[in-house]
Amino acid sequence: VSVGGEPEEVGLRASVMTAKVNFMRAKRELVSSTFGGLALMTHAAIVFLMVFIIDVVSKFGSMVQAANASLALGQGASAATALSFDFANMQFLQALMPPVILVLSVINAMAPRATAGGYTHKFFLYLGLTLLASGASLIVAPALVGKIFGTVSTA
Hints:
- By secondary structure, this protein is mostly helical.
- The protein has 4 helices and no strands.
């Protein structure tokens, strides 16, 4: 052939190149699908733990403040000052929790999309899944904390 090379050699090199590209795409798909599932489960665990811990500390703080108030009125101020914990920042942490969850959801939706490549709107699938996991955590964690601390008497 006057412009290129031998047809057999060109065909062999083109088929080898195509096979390598397809193999690399298959490897990327395997890694990205595993990473997407792992990112979603990790996101759900992080959000659940954050909501659970903030709720536990908040309930514990309200119980300690109630105990301090009853000790200050009753037996003596020395016992009340021994249990003085500062839970003043709990309202700030509770107000900061929803924006942190939203930022984590967006970031954890971008990461699998960046590794997978392909369809651009796949980000919205991952965003929906992370927001679903966040919503489930926001429903389940406070209910679980309520059941745990519901058995503890505040009186």
